[in-house]
Amino acid sequence: MSISGFKRGYHTIKVMLQYGLDKSLPSKLKPWYFRALRSCLFWLRNKHPQRSGGERFRLAMLELGPVYIKLGQMLSTRRDLLNDEWAEELAELQDRVPPFDSALARAAIEAELGVPIDSLFDDFEDTPLASASIAQVHCAVLKSTGQPVVLKVLRPNVEQKINQDLQLMEQVASRLEKIMGNSHRFRPAEIIADYKSTILGELDLKLEAINATKLRNNFTDSDALYVPYVHMEHCYKRLMVMERINGIPVSNIEQLQAQGTNFKLLAERGVELFFTQVFRDNFFHADMHPGNIFISKEHPDNPFYIGLDCGIMGTLSETDKRYLAENFLAFFNRDYQRIAQLYIESGWVSENTDVVAFEQAVKAMCDPIFQKPLDEISFGHVLLELFRTARKFEMVVQPQLILLQKTLLYIEGLGRQLYPQLDLWQTAKPFLEQWMSEQIGPKAFFDKAKANMPFWSEKLPELPELVYDNLKLGRKLLGSQQQLLQKYVRHQQQLHKSNYLLITSAVLLICGTLFYNQSVTPLLPHSFYGLGVILWIVGWRQRPKKH
């Protein structure tokens, strides 16, 4: 580990211990060696004993920086895992991170624009509208159109802080792989590399602007999701300008109740949005914590989501999408045998796995869960338990599914918060059944043929020429193959003849030696010797030459 990595690692441990996070761990997670190591760091004491556990955790995440704040944001949505005190504290990490100096924000914005702010915007507000782990947002009015906009600018030196944490994670992952040897079940280096590409993408606001525009186009006519318009002409790597929206934060339940929001419809649309993005578009928002989600104020009886912060987006391969959809449906139908088969077919579990034993393990895990009322079942928790069961059968960790798992946890956390009676199964199953029917059968075949029709109509005039060229090439190859075959036959004939002569010469030489030892007339053995040498010379000259 490098010196900088060691320093960052020590700083991370120091902050955690000074906020007393070790005190929050249950006793069963603190074995004797953990307590021994903690005793060795006796000078690092809890400096905030008067604060609650949730507050200490939030403050520690704030001090450690963006990578850890992201962790806190995800945990804040899991009210089925955290008590209310912890969840409320961590919710403040979503958009209430302490802002940085507005003078620095102005300087950073003008550095990206290359001109003074006042030349392009009116009424720039120095007090930020929101401040998050990586960037903060300021309001203004676009001079050219008079439209209210927001300017999102990266925090100073945020790239350096994130790179330090990522470097530390890479070094730790590398050490873990060396310790584990050739084990392929857990691939920490690959997981960190995948996370690195994800979070570094969030540091490029130009890329976020492109993602937001693509997501907006995917839901142009949707009554479930609205993505604000992005002014691409004013977007750069560290600056993004977009339409200012007027919505209610999804976490503000009281305000949503006051306007008479249809919570059941809103929760169901959240689930539909997840599956639509994953299976229809294969382009899903992977950072859907409450700080990035607002609810429309118009038509509370028919509410829609407003999505922000498209820095982290996810995609899946067609194969993973198909297996995932089938897995969900098999799970909804309690078809444990199909779940086991899908894990093996997809390569997530070794093909040598005992299917029957795996099926029984899945059934043993799922049956007690299904005995509960649907509104008490956490699908995110079930998914995690399913992967934990699969790991016992040497499941290969799938880095490409990590973002998907995190997004599903976010969605379910939001859905349960909005409408605790949310029936995730009843909402998701019809969508998946329809999607699968569109992927298999005559309709899917004709749809794919229709989609490929422009390509084939363009290539059709070239088809006769391509057929002629291939036939001509085939005839040429056939002739070449015949020539090679004839050459090979001649080579084998020559080799056979040469071997025959060499073997005969060897026999004659042996016979000559035998007769010579029998003290017969010298003429006979010498005749055998002479004839043997002549045949050896002829046989050697007959051997085919190597090319």
Can you describe what's shown?
This protein is α+β, with helices and mostly antiparallel strands and about 550 residues long. Among the domains are: about 5-90, no CATH class; about 255-440, no CATH class; about 470-540, no CATH class. It is built from 20 helices and eleven strands. The protein has helices at about 5-20, 30-40, 55-65, 65-75, 85-90, 100-115, 160-180, 190-200, 205-220, 255-260, 265-280, 320-330, 335-345, 355-370, 380-390, 400-420, 425-440, 440-460, 465-515, 525-540, and strands at about 120, 130, 135-140, 150-155, 225, 240-245, 245-250, 285, 295, 305, 315. Strands 1, 2, 3, 4 and 6 form a five-stranded antiparallel sheet that branches. The chain has a four-stranded mixed sheet with strand order 5-10-9-7. It has a two-stranded antiparallel sheet with strand order 8-11. Helix 1 runs antiparallel to helix 3 (about 55-65), helix 4 packs across helix 5 (about 85-90) and helix 14 (about 355-370) packs antiparallel against helix 15 (about 380-390). The model has no long low-confidence stretch (mean pLDDT about 80).
Low-confidence parts: none
Question: How helix-rich are the residues, as a percent range?
Answer: 55-70%
Task: Tell me the number of helical segments per DSSP (H or I, 4 or more residues long).
Answer: 20
**Overall pLDDT, averaged?**
78
Structural class: alpha+beta
How far the N terminus sits from the C terminus, by CA atoms, comes to 55 Å
| Cα radius of gyration in angstroms | 36 Å
Q: In what range is the share of β-strand residues?
A: 5-15%
What would you call the shape?
elongated
Number of strands: 11
Main β-sheet, in a few words?
5 strands, antiparallel
